[in-house]
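**User:** My hope is that you can spare some time for a protein that puzzles me. As I understand it, each token names a local backbone shape. I would be glad if you read both lines and explained how they fit together. The protein I mean follows directly.
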Amino acid sequence: MGFQYCPTVAIGGIKLHNLDSVLNCNVDSVAVVTAVTESINPIATVHTFREKINAYFNQPRQRGSQPRKWFAVGTQTSRNRA
């Protein structure tokens, strides 16, 4: 049985200040909750996360490596729900 690709998700303690280190571990996606829900400005925080994540995932990849994918969650948080 050969190697099977298994997507990885980084979960827990991810903040803007350590996002680059997390992404450099070659994860396929990140799950961010507290950094957004406890932010003074959740929409700006999500925007900044998206910019950094997009910049990382749009970098050229090594030949033969698996494609990187990430899924964005909306900017609605418990603080701004109707």
Confidence is low (pLDDT under 50) at residues 70-82. The chain has three helices and two strands.
